[in-house]
Design a protein that fits this description.
2 domains, single chain, 25% strand, 6-stranded antiparallel beta barrel, 37% helix, 369 residues, alpha+beta, elongated, 6-stranded antiparallel barrel, Thrombin, subunit H
């Protein structure tokens, strides 16, 4: 959409001059493009501030005009001003509203042009996207900023190897298969830690950078396989406003958070992701996103650095597509049985969390020194 046409469209929308069909079209555009939605909100707020300021200026102008009129009639005496100063103030009072309006228009134009430049500059916008994995060494050095610390225990990370990144993973098969984000796997190996502090060796089976997904398998004699998983993984899209919740490891203990679906697509209209309103921090990458029924609908991956609570999650259906591709490319690839039913549908949120947290893990990738 051209710059001028976009400006005219936003003004027409805010002025209530659109037909019902045009309103529906523009609302869909806002939902699909967070940048335009943000521009509309900022434009509306700024216009309200400008109107308030103009009303304030108008009131002051009326008071000054009344004061000048009374002074000229001799009904009051301005003992603080010489005749020259009075003349200057009189001229200012007479023309300052026009000056204020002109300045306001110039200011609005400048801000709007700045917004358009930001919107149509993809390189700059990409800098706003922040992955939610965490570097373990940085976490240790700056506990207050990251809000996390690492347990001190005999690690199963091989000697001579260093932790390179951390995040969250969750089981998609009771036999020990897990999903996390590809950007969390910045190394040759991995370990996972359950919510009780037990650490297990894991093997990286596949990494799909395009979908930002990684498949792991727990290969550890200490790991006791589960009989089944209490949740299911959904292939379907979810509606705007749907309440969601997540579990993850921005700290060394599992953390719960909740929010809602705010856009059907991700950053810059990415159809493999959706946008949620949620607070997320480094370490939440790879965390499952649940709906109220206890179905996994997404995997937290990134956030918009310059916007509070704007988080993006990979749609869960990408897990199915990833596994299908792996099987097609290698017929010997193990059969992974994804859960198709949920036992959490009618549970309270507290009970849902209790039944889910054992299947969500802290994951740490490592590499040789």
């Amino acid at each position: 959409m051209e710059d001028i046409k976009l400006q005219e469209t936003i003004e027409k929308f805010l002025d209530g001059k659109m037909s019902p069909d045009e309103i529906a079209w523009f609302e869909d555009l806002r939902n699909a493009t967070p940048e335009i939605d943000q521009m509309v909100v900022e434009h509306k707020l700024f216009s309200e501030k400008i109107n308030d300021y103009a009303n304030h200026i108008d009131l002051k102008q009326r008071l000054h005009t009344l004061h000048t009129s009374l002074t000229e009639k001799g009904e009051i005496e301005d003992i603080h001003l010489s005749s020259r100063k009075a003349k200057v103030i009189y001229l200012w009072n007479r023309y300052k509203r026009v000056t204020a309006i002109a300045a306001s228009i110039a200011c609005i134009t400048a801000l709007f042009i700045y917004g358009l430049v930001s919107f149509f500059a993809p390189v700059a916008n990409m800098n706003d996207l922040q992955q939610l994995s965490k570097k373990i060494d940085q976490v240790q050095l700056n506990q207050q900023m990251q809000g996390a610390r690492i347990r001190e225990f005999d690690s199963k990370i091989p000697k001579g190897y260093t932790i390179t990144a951390g995040g969250t993973a969750f089981l998609i098969d009771a036999k020990g298969y897990l999903i996390t984000n590809a950007h969390v796997m910045k190394g040759s190996g991995a370990v996972v830690v359950d919510n009780k502090g037990n650490e297990f060796k894991a093997k990286i089976l596949a990494v799909d950078v395009e979908k930002d997904l990684a498949l792991l398998k727990i290969n550890d004699d200490d790991f006791k396989k589960f009989n089944s998983l209490p949740y299911s993984i959904s292939k379907s899209n979810i509606d705007l406003g749907t309440e969601i919740f997540t579990l993850g490891y921005p700290k060394d203990e599992i953390v719960y958070n909740m929010g809602y679906l705010s856009a059907r697509n991700g950053f810059n209209g990415d159809t493999t992701n959706f946008q949620i309103s949620l607070n997320a921090n480094p370490g939440n990458s790879g965390g499952p996103v649940f709906n109220n029924k206890g179905e996994i609908v997404g995997i937290i991956s990134t956030r918009q650095a310059q916007a509070e609570g704007v988080v993006f999650a990979v749609k869960a259906k990408n897990i199915f597509e990833m596994l299908k591709g792996l099987k097609e490319n290698d017929s010997s690839f193990p059969n992974i049985k994804m859960p198709v039913n949920t036992t959490l549908k009618n549970e309270t949120r507290v009970n849902q969390i209790k039944k889910v947290e054992d299947y969500v893990f802290l994951v740490k990738s490592y590499n040789s020194n």
